[in-house]
Design a protein that fits this description.
Elements (H helix, E strand, L loop, with lengths): L1 H20 L37 H6 L7 H10 L3 H5 L3 H47 L3 H6 L5 H7 L2 H40 L6 E6 L5 E6 L10
Antiparallel strand pairs: 1-2
Helix pairs in contact: 3-8, 5-8
């Protein structure tokens, strides 16, 4: 009986590892294949090249100005200070160049007329001085002329009767009128540039194009164009 118990204990001690080793192993479950993400990038129909949308660089500024590139009031002030500045802020480079060139021409002509007016005044003053000197020299030998010069207004009368002095006076008056005209043109162009910049800034987010162009019969006409999208079946 004792031997039977010892034999059973030995069988359990040495037979358990073998039993464990002979147990069948379960194969690992197969990993399902990963689905490839679908390419949703828009591509050109003809070439198949991906179409990349242009970057929106001015999105932040446009949102801050209510969708406009620049505030109309700011564009107005800028173009009054410097014609063309407000148009440039609103993205109208051609209009900016036209107003800047026009104002530069006005200032150039105003400066030229101002210099001519100063020259006419100098010539008139020099003629007056020359007439006064010649009259005083003649009065030294002419007694009647010397008594005439005792009147303070006598010299002015003599000078006013000189033909060249009268011509120089007319020239000075004409130069003064020209200067006033060019001052008016310069101020008007500045105000016109400011108003145009205000309107251009207001229409900076308008998809169409508004402008003035010549007509075939010699007049002018207001032109307006609005872009439209092509239907899907024509793309």
């Amino acid at each position: 009986m004792r031997r039977a118990l010892l034999a059973a204990a030995a069988a359990l001690a040495f037979g358990a590892p073998g039993a464990v080793a002979q147990q069948p192993t379960t194969p690992p479950a197969a990993t399902p294949p990963t689905a490839t993400p679908r390419d949703t990038t828009p591509r050109d129909t003809a070439s198949g090249v991906p179409r990349v949308a242009p970057p929106r660089l001015a999105a932040k500024d446009s949102a801050a100005n209510g969708g406009l590139r620049v505030k109309p009031g700011v564009a107005l002030i800028h173009s009054i200070l410097l014609p063309g500045w407000g148009q440039l802020d609103a993205g109208a480079g051609t209009r900016a160049a036209v107003y800047f060139a026009g104002e530069a021409a006005n200032i150039g002509m105003l400066t030229k007329t101002w210099l001519k007016l100063a020259d006419a005044r100098d010539r008139r003053a020099a003629r007056r001085t020359a007439i006064g000197d010649s009259v005083r020299v003649a009065a030294q030998t002419d007694t009647l002329l010397a008594k005439r010069l005792d009147n303070p207004l006598a010299l002015d009368t003599i000078v006013a009767g000189d033909t060249l002095f009268q011509r120089l006076g007319k020239l000075t008056h004409a130069r003064r009128r020209q200067r006033e005209d060019w001052i008016t043109y310069t101020v008007f162009w500045m105000l016109a540039s400011g108003v145009d910049a205000f309107v251009t800034a207001q229409l900076s987010d308008f998809p169409g194009d508004v402008g003035i162009g010549p007509k075939s019969d010699g007049g002018v006409e207001l032109r307006w164009s609005l872009p439209t999208r092509r239907p899907r079946w024509l793309r």
